[in-house]
């Protein structure tokens, strides 16, 4: 697996970072999170996403054609 992806992001990212990483909008980012398609941590009211979970989402579900459909 290519670990040189997203090197300019911290190890734990926010929803805004997730949007930028995947090139998606706010609604789709929250949909992926609430449907547990992207693993995340919820601490109080903050949603934190380890960068590795984003990478796992991209490479682990590469065969899912409807990954980004709303």
Question: Which helices and strands appear, and what pairs or packs with what?
Answer:
Layout: E1 12-13, H1 15-22, H2 26-34, E2 41-43, E3 46-50, H3 51-60
Antiparallel strand pairs: 1-3, 2-3
Helix pairs in contact: 1-2
Structure notes:
The chain is of the alpha+beta class and about 70 residues long. Helices cover about 40% and strands about 15% of the residues. It has 3 helices and 3 strands. Strands 1-3-2 form a 3-stranded antiparallel sheet. The radius of gyration is 12 Å and the shape is globular. About 5% of the residues have low confidence.
In short:
Helices cover 39% and strands 14% of the residues. It is of the alpha+beta class.
Radius of gyration in whole Å, from Cα?
12 Å
Mean pLDDT: 88
What characteristic shape results from the CA principal axes?
globular
Spans where pLDDT lies below 50 across 5 or more residues: 62-66
Number of strands: 3
Order of helix and strand elements from N to C terminus? EHHEEH
Q: How many domains in all?
A: 1
| Order of strands in the sheet with most strands | 1-3-2
Strand content: 5-15%
How many DSSP H or I helices?
A: 3
Strand pairing plus helix content: what structural class?
A: alpha+beta
Main sheet summary? 3 strands, antiparallel
Q: Gap between N and C termini, in Å?
A: 27 Å
Q: Level of helix content?
A: 25-40%
- Give the assembly state of these chains: single chain
């Amino acid at each position: 697996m290519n670990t040189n992806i997203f090197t300019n992001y911290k190890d734990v990212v926010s929803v805004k970072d997730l949007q930028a990483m995947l090139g998606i909008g706010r609604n789709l980012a929250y949909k992926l999170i609430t449907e547990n398609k992207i693993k995340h941590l919820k601490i109080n009211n903050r949603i934190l996403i380890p960068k590795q979970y984003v990478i796992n989402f991209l490479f682990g579900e590469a065969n899912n054609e409807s990954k980004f459909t709303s």
